[in-house]
Amino acid sequence: MKLSQIVAAVPALNKLSLSELPLRDAYRLSKLLSAIQPDLDFFNNKRLGILDRLGKKASDGNYEVPPQNMEAFKSEMDELGGIESQAGIAAIKLPLCETKEIRLAANDITLLEPFIEWAEAQQTQERGANNGISGI
């Protein structure tokens, strides 16, 4: 999985993490979030380095990349996003259920596909301990 996929999925993962989930599902999601955190930290640190080198910090704290540096910035960001994660992240199974607590857009579902295997609620209960995390 590429770093760009992990970074793109963060808003959807955060949205899902704020949802009320059954305890086992919340635990699995928490472990998944912990597994991707080092990749996110690496990406953000390198991104800031690229911005410091090629951009200028505006008075509001945001960075602006001058037009003459834009091509180099895009190239370096593409290279950074294309790095394969070494975390060995496996998708977790979560139940497909109709609940008011979880609201995801179709785009969220697409971004979550590498991380979440959606299953009927009965299937996830039957498989319980077979979700890639021992002891559950």
Annotation keywords:
mainly alpha, two-stranded antiparallel ribbon, 54% helix, elongated, disordered C terminus
Task: Tell me what you see in this structure.
The chain is mostly helical and 136 residues long. It has one domain. Helices cover 54% and strands 10% of the residues. It has 5 helices and 4 strands. A two-stranded antiparallel sheet has the order 1-2. Helix 1 (3-17) packs across helix 2 (23-54) and helix 2 (23-54) runs antiparallel to helix 3. The two termini are 25 Å apart. Residues 132-136 have low confidence and may be disordered.
Question: Secondary-structure map with pairings?
Answer:
Elements: H1 3-17, H2 23-54, E1 56-57, E2 63-64, H3 70-81, E3 92-96, H4 106-112, E4 116-120, H5 121-127
Parallel strand pairs: 3-4
Antiparallel strand pairs: 1-2
Structural class by helix and strand composition: mainly alpha
Round the mean pLDDT to the nearest integer and report it: 87
In total, the number of domains comes to 1
Number of discrete helical segments: 5
The gist of it:
With 136 residues, the protein is mainly alpha-helical. It contains 5 helices and 4 strands; from the N terminus they run ααββαβαβα.
